[in-house]
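testing teh design pipeline on a random one, pls ignore if ur not involved
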């Protein structure tokens, strides 16, 4: 996906952002496919547990009642140029929004520096 205009900082460098999306586990495969379709290949994925507005649930295991208040989620991290952020966020929202509590959250942070360890490339070349 070519970028027509780049958002440059005062030193002529492209602004970079980190997107963290906490999503339902069942949505990961579709998110990966759609991100690939828009040209986003580099992602990091974690299995995490968390809670937000979801209420605790009672579950039974071997006849014993247990309260579950941390729910399995997937955390997806993407570092990209600023110009890609809205497209990535709207793609994730389009797939993951069910309208129910527990859909997850998306966080966007500035990235100060990126270095590819194997080649020492920096900035967008390192993504």
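output:
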């Amino acid at each position: 996906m070519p970028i027509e205009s780049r958002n440059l900082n005062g030193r002529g460098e492209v602004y970079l952002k980190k997107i963290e999306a906490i999503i339902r586990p069942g949505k990961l495969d579709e998110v990966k496919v759609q991100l690939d379709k828009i040209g986003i290949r580099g992602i990091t994925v974690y299995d995490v547990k968390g809670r937000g507005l979801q209420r605790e649930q009672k579950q039974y295991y071997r006849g014993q009642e247990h309260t579950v208040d941390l729910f399995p989620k997937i955390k997806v991290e993407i570092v990209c140029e600023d110009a890609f952020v809205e497209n990535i966020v709207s793609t994730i929202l389009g797939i993951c929004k069910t309208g129910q509590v527990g859909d997850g959250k998306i966080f966007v942070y500035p990235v100060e520096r990126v270095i590819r360890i194997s080649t020492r490339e920096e900035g967008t070349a390192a993504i």
